[in-house]
Amino acid sequence: MVAKKAEPSPEGLARAKRQRIAMEDGAKAMVESDQRNAAVRKNMERLRALRLAKEAEEAEAKAAAPAPVKAKRKARAAP
Questions:
Q1: What are 24-52's pLDDT values in tens digits?
Q2: Which of 3, 12, 44, 67 could form a disulfide with 8, with the two C-beta atoms 3.0–4.6 Å apart?
Q3: Where are the domains of the chain?
Q4: 28: CB partners within 8 A, 6+ apart
């Protein structure tokens, strides 16, 4: 049976350090991703509001405008 060493090996320390750094980097990446997603959602809401306002304005202008009068065809002269 092999007894455990009281002191960790340099390779073990390096591995633990790499894992800790990877976890920190992963947490930072998740925060950045969440912030980017929130910014995209906010921009989409802003653009949607602008589009809806424009569509409502166009519909109102179309309803307020008089209906176009169709031109009558002239009678053809008999040959």
A1: 999 999 999 999 999 999 999 999 999 99
A2: 12
A3: 10-63
A4: none
Euclidean distance between CA atoms 23 and 15, whole angstroms: 12
Burial of 30-45, coded b for 16+ CB within 10 Å and e otherwise, reads: eeeeeeeeeeeeeeee
Please give the structure tokens belonging to residue 11.
């390779």
For the whole prediction, is pTM greater than 0.90? Answer: no
Rounded to 10 degrees, the C-alpha dihedral 52/56/59/63 comes to 170
List Cβ neighbours of 8 (8 Å cut-off, separation of 6 or more).
16
Query: Tokens 């912030």 appear where?
Result: 35
Per the rule left: phi > 0, alpha: psi between -120 and 50, beta: everything else, 47 is alpha
